[in-house]
Amino acid sequence: MDIVEIDNPNDSVQRASGSYFVSRYGLMSFPDGVSADAVIRERGMTLWLMEGGRRLAQWEQTGSRDDMTELRDRAAEQIAPWVRTLRVLAPLSDLRAELETVRRLQLDLERYDDPSDVVDALVPHAATDEIEQARRDSRAFEPLGSPLAAIVVARLSEAITHTQRVALAAAPSPTAADLSAAWSVPAATWHGQPEPLGRMLARELLAGWASTVSLRDPLVSWAVAQNVAKAHVHELTGIARTTINRIA
């Protein structure tokens, strides 16, 4: 991937699509770690991993321009195995923000006697088929909003889980593709500091793994029902024959 260099912090590089890097050397500001308002200013390099117009990851180091250029190029090489995973995870922030909005509307539906305004706010978050399903599911005395909110929450929750599973499948081996602590998540904080990129990746991949593990029993049962021999299930998965017999 190519690296586009900019000089002015207000400069903008936004391609319509594709992965690339943007870097800038200049004055940087960091929290001093003592006072909430105090900052430390030093010269250094910032490197952003971009996907179209979206920032996927950010790397920062202080030092001279000559030293930083070499370190920057190494950082770009280091994150390369994770680019596919980060592209998969990119929609999660939007999905979670929408899920939070819909859950808040879901609570409002229970709180107000006349929820018509809340339903109006909820409808733009729903697809046409979801609205039709909510109408079929709602009883004569029940407003449309409650079943519709439940449908949208279920869809968004499943989208988040699916994204985490796909990211897990796309991820390199963590032990073979470690990340420097200098990589962080743009605009995300953890204990008042930029959230380390490795922490975010570990959290999302663990969630994807956990949701996949929960599918083991139904998947084994389904495979046996589809005439996959239990011995073959054992060969494919390494699951003990006694466990397979108990599940299916």
Features:
six-stranded mixed sheet; alpha+beta; 10 helices; 3 domains; 248 residues; single chain; flat
H/I helix tally: 10
Global structural class: alpha+beta
Profile the largest sheet.
6 strands, mixed
Number of strands: 6
Rg on CA atoms, Å: 24 Å
Q: How many structural domains does the protein architecture include?
A: 3
- The main sheet orders its strands as 1-2-3-4-5-6
Overall body shape? flat
Low-confidence stretches: none
Q: Strand-and-helix sequence, N→C?
A: EEEEHHHHHHEEHHHH
- Integer average pLDDT: 88
Strand content: 15-25%
CA(first)-CA(last) distance: 48 Å
As a percent range, the share of helical residues equals 40-55%
Subunit arrangement of the protein: single chain
List the helices and strands and how they pair.
Blueprint: E1 3-6, E2 19-31, E3 39-51, E4 54-62, H1 65-79, H2 83-89, H3 92-111, H4 116-122, H5 128-137, H6 145-170, E5 183-190, E6 193-196, H7 197-213, H8 216-225, H9 230-237, H10 241-247
Parallel strand pairs: 1-2
Antiparallel strand pairs: 2-3, 3-4, 4-5, 5-6
Helix pairs in contact: 2-6, 3-4, 3-6, 5-6, 6-7
Task: Describe the protein in words.
This protein has 248 residues and is an alpha+beta fold. It has 3 domains: 3-88 and 178-208, no CATH class; 92-166, no CATH class; 216-247. It contains 10 helices and 6 strands. It has a 6-stranded mixed β-sheet with strand order 1-2-3-4-5-6. Helix 2 (83-89) runs antiparallel to helix 6, helix 3 runs antiparallel to helix 6 and helix 5 packs across helix 6 (145-170). The protein is flat, with a radius of gyration of 24 Å. 18% of the residues are buried. The mean pLDDT is 88.
